[in-house]
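Posting this for the archive.
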Amino acid sequence: MGQDDPTQTTAWDEARMIELAHRHAQLEVERRLDPLMETLIAEPVYEFHPVKLCMRGGDLCRRYYAQFFDDFMNRVVGHELISEMTSPEAVAQEYDISLRVDGEVETHRVVGVLFAEGDLLGGERIYASERCIRLMAGRVFDEFEPL
């Protein structure tokens, strides 16, 4: 089959973007590191706003998710999807996430924009308070670079 074959259905579209973003989110919930990393390009870029920091590369991303699963996810006592917006290039998800921190429950509003690069995720732009980002990043926060 040639590249111009009209029977090929591999074109990237909004439905495929949504499926990939939902699979990535489900793998986060399931804490499945290797399959989660397979949803990402080899060298993903995560931006954190408004603190204007980023993490680059597969190794740092893997360490981020390992501690995210071990620490951050163990603090989650509830979450609510507020809204989701989609396009062929990205899926934006707005959440309230409630965490138990130092014996108290804190609720944080987080917006994550998962974006495509080819047929995988190129990374994510995360909008949250600095406190929430520090809790998400844990020990790898100090390895983030300025944007």
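The chain is about 35% helix and 40% strand. The mean pLDDT is 93.
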